TrEMBL record:
This is Diacylglycerol kinase. Keywords: ATP-binding, Cell inner membrane, Cell membrane, Kinase, Lipid biosynthesis, Lipid metabolism, Magnesium, Membrane, Metal-binding, Nucleotide-binding, Phospholipid biosynthesis, Phospholipid metabolism, Transferase, Transmembrane, Transmembrane helix. It catalyses: a 1,2-diacyl-sn-glycerol + ATP = a 1,2-diacyl-sn-glycero-3-phosphate + ADP + H(+). The active site is at 72 (proton acceptor). A divalent metal cation binds at residues 31, 79. GO terms for cellular component: plasma membrane. It is an enzyme of class 2 (transferase). Catalyzes the ATP-dependent phosphorylation of sn-l,2-diacylglycerol (DAG) to phosphatidic acid. Involved in the recycling of diacylglycerol produced as a by-product during membrane-derived oligosaccharide (MDO) biosynthesis.
Length: 125
């Protein structure tokens, strides 16, 4: 059984924050897809401010792209766990990686739908 941390309150939050930064550095170094998606997120902010006709629309546009980044992080975590188990080919390992990839694709489709809907609404307004 894994030892649970004894940190509580603000100390636990600080430790979690530093662990998150460690994860950010690791994924930034190792995942080209993550770097591209973060760049897309950065570009989405001014585009969403211009395209969105309300604050809610702008947040939805940015949030849709942020969701892709979040799912990419989870996909990378799945890949890391599968790779940790062993390098040999196993049907379930491949399936886990494929499902993680599918999750990223579905998040990207959702983002595309949201951006397209807002764009169409702006054109027709």
């Amino acid at each position: 059984m894994r030892n649970k941390t004894t940190l509580k309150g603000p100390a636990r939050l600080r430790a979690a924050f530093w662990n998150s930064l460690t994860g950010l550095r690791a994924i930034w170094r190792s995942e080209e897809a993550f770097r591209l998606e973060v760049r897309a997120l950065a570009l989405s902010v001014p585009l969403a401010a211009w395209l969105g006709q309300s604050l809610v629309q702008a947040v939805a546009l940015i949030g849709a792209v942020l969701l892709i980044v979040i799912v990419e992080v989870l996909n990378t975590a799945i890949e890391a766990v599968v790779d940790r188990i062993g390098p040999e080919h196993h049907e379930l390992s491949g399936e886990a990686k494929d499902l993680g990839s599918l999750a990223v694709l579905l998040a990207a489709i959702l983002a595309g739908m949201i951006w397209l809907a807002v764009l169409i609404q702006r054109i027709l307004a």
